[in-house]
């Protein structure tokens, strides 16, 4: 770590100070700036920097799914470059808020990047860091991905909470989601046309309010809409349409703030045979579905406390066969099945679920009750000289060699290898084919 810091420091000084480096990369995100610094300092060629870059790229290809709202505690280990991603869906008109709290070294960075899927490619649309929240409004229905990745060689514990909320306030005072009883696209006039808005039902005379700051552009009446008001949202370049009003209480040209009264709920126009309601429409080069803009979402989520005794620690499966899922919930796709005794590392924790990583770096979610810490195992005897390796494959770096006869404690397993502990408290992996006998003796 010291060598890496020295190399980066030398590079910054050669550019006449950090300020000029920042200016050179001012159009880049913090993540891109950091990656560029590694390249300029020729650190990109080092194995650990390559692992860091690959981790960020691989995370975009193999992301896990969440449902909103979501809160999770997670951990990054300094010795293992990694990135965590959270994939989710949003509706047009919704606003995402990402709240992050990280425990780390004072100057360490945890990069926060938001992507949207466009033509099967992830395009970055926003970024933040561990010292501030990230917020973003969406202009279309979208598949999104949030990536968290720390800089090299730092330990970081974090909690992240993702919530979505409507961009606008409901234009009918006191209305709730239950008040919306007719939605965008419903057939009208026997299927001759489609409903270009939503109907929000309320008592006659209930105030109709501005859903955002803007300017009233037109006040009038028509056979279809009855008494109507149009307003322009300059910030979002949207036009709002309020129809079937009992009365209008504003004039064209009036500047309004969110919550200002525009008129009163009624049933004028072609709604004269229905209960009083507001027809609310949004237009931008055509009709837009208003539902995501005003539909509220229950964002109550159980707070997660960072547990360092769990995060980053080795666990194993204790049931015969368990599902390894792409998200924390039974509604998410099964990513694979794990057998009893399978080794995994806990990288995150949310309500009822662990985010876990297998030795081959595959990630998924598993029920908390289906795993247990790797603490005790069974005694096995080795009859041949074997290497205890750093990973469960024949290319893993040997940590030590054991000369038979030798007894070790088998703690967990993965794809033909056993995770063992010696009497000298050395842990690592040995090939199952080299184990000739086993005694079910728990220590």
Structure overview:
With 443 residues, this protein is mainly beta. Among the domains are: 1-45, no CATH class; 177-294, Glucose Permease (Domain IIA) (Distorted Sandwich); 314-373, SH3 type barrels, CATH 2.30.30; 378-442, SH3 type barrels (Roll). It is 11% helix and 46% strand. The chain has helices spanning 2-14, 18-24, 30-40, 47-61, 291-294; strands at residues 64-65, 70-76, 84-90, 94-103, 110-118, 121-129, 134-137, 142-150, 156-166, 180-182, 187-188, 193-194, 198-201, 207-209, 214-222, 226-233, 238-248, 255-256, 261-265, 277-283, 287-288, 314-317, 321-325, 334-339, 343-350, 353-357, 363-367, 371-373, 378-382, 386-389, 398-402, 406-414, 417-421, 427-431, 435-442. The strands form seven sheets. Strands 10, 13, 14, 15, 16, 17, 18, 19, 20 and 21 form a ten-stranded antiparallel β-sheet that branches. A hairpin with a 3-residue loop joins strand 20 (277-283) and strand 21 (287-288). It is elongated, with a radius of gyration of 29 Å. The model is unreliable at 1-26 and 438-443 (pLDDT under 50).
- In helices, the fraction of residues equals 10-25%
Structural class: mainly beta
Strand content is over 45%
Oligomeric state of the chains in view: single chain
- CATH C-level of the domain at 177-294: Mainly Beta
The outline comes out as elongated
CATH topology of the domain at 177-294: Glucose Permease (Domain IIA)
CATH superfamily of the domain at 177-294: Glucose Permease (Domain IIA)
Distance between the termini: 38 Å
The biggest beta sheet is recorded as:
10 strands, antiparallel
Overall average pLDDT: 89
CATH architectural category of the domain at 177-294? Distorted Sandwich
Unreliable sequence segments: 1-26, 438-443
Gyration radius, to the nearest Å? 29 Å
Tally of DSSP β-strands = 35
User: How many separate helices?
Assistant: 5
